[in-house]
Amino acid sequence: MTTSHEAATRDAPRERILETAYDLFAQHGVGSVGINEVITRSGVAKATLYRHFPAKTDLVLAFLAEREQRWTHDFIEAEALRRGDTPTEQLLAIFDVFDEWFHRTDFEGCSFINVLLEMHGHGSEHPLGQASAQYLDNIRVIVRDLADRAGLTAPQDFAHSWHILMKGSIVAAAEGDTIAARRARTMAHSLIDEHRAPAVMS
């Protein structure tokens, strides 16, 4: 029987590789970071890395999955749900979370957008492009569910429009507009009003 300590020891190199790759890919993009840099910084042998991740694509896919957990769920979704008492407040709180994120010295942009753009020209079937698009779609699902709970009309269309505000504010922040989230939040109020169900006349 494998003990928990043995399992942790066995998985330690993989976790060290992934943690190193996570920091490098998030800050510098996947295209500009080579496998040798990941090996050097993680302190593992090349054979060890390739045992856990046979190709760079496998490592990037693992990074994207980890990014969804840490950024989408543990950061954006969890914070928005914590800060808002109603689904509408939780939707708007996304931009409050963004505002704080945009002002952090380690603001790195959206890895899903970055990888999707880096894969442009590699064909629509490239696994990294497909994975990035799926993780972006998963964000829209979160927004759509909040819109549905808020009683907004056409929640799917709302989610697409809302996501444009989210992605646009991230790009604007990367350009240097540190109040991009506040601008997006103002526009978000108008979008919510457009999707409110009409009042029933008695």
TrEMBL record:
<dbReference type="InterPro" id="IPR009057">
    <property type="entry name" value="Homeodomain-like_sf"/>
</dbReference>
<dbReference type="Pfam" id="PF00440">
    <property type="entry name" value="TetR_N"/>
</dbReference>
<feature type="domain" description="HTH tetR-type">
    <location>
        <begin position="11"/>
        <end position="71"/>
    </location>
</feature>
<dbReference type="InterPro" id="IPR001647">
    <property type="entry name" value="HTH_TetR"/>
</dbReference>
<feature type="DNA-binding region" description="H-T-H motif">
    <location>
        <begin position="34"/>
        <end position="53"/>
    </location>
</feature>
<protein>
    <submittedName>
        <fullName>AcrR family transcriptional regulator</fullName>
    </submittedName>
</protein>
<dbReference type="GO" id="GO:0003677">
    <property type="term" value="F:DNA binding"/>
</dbReference>
<dbReference type="InterPro" id="IPR036271">
    <property type="entry name" value="Tet_transcr_reg_TetR-rel_C_sf"/>
</dbReference>
<keyword id="KW-0238">DNA-binding</keyword>
<keyword id="KW-0804">Transcription</keyword>
<keyword id="KW-0805">Transcription regulation</keyword>
